[in-house]
Amino acid sequence: MRTNTFSSLLIGAGLPFAALAERVVHDESFIPDHVLRVNSSQVPTGCQSRQAVIVNGTSPGPAIHLLPGAQSWIRVYNDMADQNLTMVSTYTIIPLRNSRLTKEQHWHGLTQRMAPFADGAPQAAQWPIPPGHFFDYEIATQAEDPGTYFYHSHVGMQAMSCFGPLIVDDCGSSPHQYDDERVFVFHDYFTETGHQMMDSVAKAPYKGVPETDGILLNGQGVSTGKTAKPGNPGRKFIFGGGYSSPRGLAPVFPPRLHPRSPGPLPTGDEEIEDGESQQQTSNTDDCILPVIDVDPGKTYRFRFIGGTGLSFLTMGFEGHSNLIVVQVDGSEYNVPVSTDRIQLGAGQRFDVMFTTKTEDELKADGDKKTYFLQFETRDRPNPYRGYGVLRYSSQADVPAAPENPVITLPTDVTDWLEYTLQPLYPDTSKAPTAAEVTRRIVVDCVQTQDEATGRVVWELAGLPWTEDSRTSPLLVDIYQHGEAAIPDYDAAINNNNWDPKTESFPVKLNEVLEIVFQNTGSRVRGSGFVESHPFHAHGQHYYDIGSGPGRYDADANNAKLEELDYKPVRRDTTMLYRYDDRVEAGQAAGWRAWRIRAEDPGVWMIHCHILAHMMMGK
C-alpha cells in the first residue's frame, strides 16, 4: 500500500521510493549560487555580548533572494568545531564527507516538494552536517512561490541566532504596486547560551523555560536592564530593500546573476549609499534602538518575519495605523486586510503594504522625522516592551526609547485576523471542504512528567519526539530499506492514528485530513498551566480553518465557516492560543484546526516552533 507519513512532529504526504531520489555529486569545479558559513562566536548584541551561532559573521545572516521557477544551490558550511547543524530547506541535500557530529539547516516555509531529503529536519528527512564539512542544498522554486520565508538551523537551540531572511522575489508578478521593501526580522535575546538553555529544559530536575532578555529587530535592540542611548545620524538602514514592483518590472536574471543576493562571502561592512540595497546586517556594540529608514510619500512592502524562539509579539507604529496585510507565510496573496497592528508568533511571516507620510504631512506633524515602532510580548510571565525607529531621514538623530508607551496595544491576542484572511483569487483555491475530509486527527498537546527520568516533556497525541528519538532519519530508512521501513497505515488507524513501530502518522496520497491541535492544562504537579504554541508544518502548506476556546466542536466550526462563507488561505504556521492562564490539569484549553490534502510525498515534521518545547518533545 502506498502511503504518506505524518508523525507526531512528522507529517508526510506519500512516501517516496528509492526511484524518486537522485544522488548528485559535485566535484571541485562546482560553484554554488550562494554560500553560508556557520560558526560560533562572541557577538555584540542587545547592549551586551554573548556566544552565539552566526551566519557569515552576523545574526541574522544575509538575506538570500531567489527567483521563482528557478533552480539554485546553496552551500552551507559547518565551521563549528563541536556542534551539529542543519538548515531547514525544500530541496535536495547531499553529504560530501562523513564525520562524528553534524548540523542541519531548514528553509522555513518552502515546501521542498521536489527534494524532501533537503528539508533540514533532523532524524526525519536528513542527516545533519558534521563539523568541518558542508552540504549543498538544491532549491527549485515554483512559479507560485514568491513570498517571504526564512532559513534557520534545526538543531538544538541554534535557531536563536542562526537564521536569516529568504525571499522569493515576485519579479513583477505581484498584484500590488510598491516602491521598495524592508525586512523586519524579530528575534529573542537570551543571556544564557544554547547549551545552558538545553540543560534547563531537557534534563531533570526541570528548571523551567528561560524567559527572553530582550527582543531584537534585525540584530539590534536593548536587553532587559539596559538603556538605549541616542544615536547620531549617518548610515541608512534598509535591510532587504532596493526592489520595486510592478512599476518597473524586474528583469529575470539567471540564478547565478541574481543582483539581490549575497556573493559567496558577504561581509556586511560595506558602506551603503542612499537607496542602495543592504542584504546583511552588522552586529555592533552601539546601544541604540533598531532603525528602519524610509522616504516620504512612498509605498513599501514590509516583510515581517517571526524569528523568535520563544516570544509571541504584538506591535504597532506610532502615527501610522493603516497596515494592509496582503500575504501570509509566503503563500497565495489574500484579499487585502487593513489593521492597526501586527501579531507575530515564532515562525510566522506577514507581508504588509505600508504608505509613508508625505512631506506635507510630516511638516503638519511638527516637521517630525522619527516615529517609534512599539512591540510587546504576550503570554509569558515576564512581559517585555521594546522599540524600533521608523526614520524619514538618515540625517535625523536616532532617539532614545520613550519613557512611556507611545501607543496602546490590546492584551487579548486571540481574535486578530481570525476567520478573516481569504484568497485574492478564490477560483484557484484548493481549500478542502468539510465534505471532502476523509479523516480527522485530534492531537492533544500535553505537558507531563516522565516517571522514569523525572524530565518534564511535551507530548503530541501521547507521543514525545526529540532529536534523539531515532537513530537514523525515517526518510533515509525508507530510501535504504523500501517497503520494510514504510509506516504501517492499518496499525496506525487502530492506534490513535500513529504507527507504533516508526512513531509516525501514515497518510495516504490525496487523503484529506482535518488536523486538530487540542491545548490542555499541564499535568505536571497538577498545575493546569496553559501555554500558547505556534504550530508549524514542514512540506506543503495547509488551510487553517480557525481556532477557539475549550474543546473542538466540528459541527459548530463548520457552521461558522458556512455562515461566514469563509474560504481560508494556505498557511504554514498558526497559533494555538492560550485562552486561560490555568485550567484543571488535563482539561481542554483551546484548539486550532487545519485541513490538508496530502499531495507532496515525503516525511514532514509538524511541531511547535518554540525551541524549548521542541527540545522537550513537541
Task: Outline the secondary-structure elements.
Elements: E1 4-6, E2 34-45, E3 48-55, E4 64-66, E5 71-78, E6 85-88, E7 93-95, E8 103-108, E9 133-140, E10 147-153, E11 163-168, E12 180-188, H1 194-202, E13 215-217, E14 220-221, E15 291-293, E16 299-306, E17 312-317, E18 323-328, E19 333-339, E20 342-344, E21 349-355, H2 359-364, E22 370-378, E23 385-391, E24 439-449, E25 456-460, H3 474-481, H4 489-493, E26 505-507, E27 512-520, E28 533-537, E29 542-548, H5 554-564, E30 570-571, E31 573-576, E32 588-597, E33 603-604, E34 606-608, H6 611-615
Parallel strand pairs: 1-33, 2-5, 4-11, 6-8, 12-16, 15-23, 24-27
Antiparallel strand pairs: 1-26, 2-3, 5-9, 7-9, 8-10, 10-11, 12-13, 13-14, 16-21, 17-20, 17-22, 18-19, 18-21, 22-23, 24-25, 27-32, 28-31, 28-34, 29-30, 29-32
Task: Walk me through the structure.
The chain is mainly beta and 618 residues long. It has 3 domains: 15-171, Cupredoxins -  blue copper proteins (Immunoglobulin-like, Sandwich), CATH 2.60.40.420; 198-391, Sandwich (Immunoglobulin-like); 426-615, Immunoglobulin-like (Sandwich). The protein has 6 helices and 34 strands. It has a 7-stranded mixed sheet with strand order 14-13-12-16-21-18-19, with no helix packed on it. The chain has a 6-stranded mixed sheet with strand order 25-24-27-32-29-30, with no helix packed on it. Strand 18 and strand 19 form a beta hairpin. The longest helix is centred in the C-terminal third of the chain and has 11 residues, at 554-564. Mean pLDDT is 84; it is low at 1-21, 89-103 and 244-277.
